Amino acid sequence: MIMLVNMIRVELPVVTEVSAVNFRQNLGEMLNQVQYRNDSIVISKDGKPVAALVDAELFARIRRMRDRFDALSSRVAAAYAGTPAAEGTAEIDAAILAERRARGKAGRKR
Asked: Does the reported pTM lie above 0.90?
């Protein structure tokens, strides 16, 4: 997909869905799509997605994000250790609601 942004040509990565059989038959071509065009390939079996082929840079970003999420989840779990689940959940929900309201007000001021 190609978009013009302020008269600069920007090619957006494409996500293609293929069957496992098609993927096996065209592996070399699909690797080139991912490597050189930064496209992503979703591989399906019996019509259901089972795997994805993405470029190495995107995969590294996903892994870093997962690691950061896991670290944050561990910190939250440690902070709420010993707190009844309902109480902790209510506190987290209230904090999320307050943040969303604050962002909503900031968005309207623009």
From this structure: no
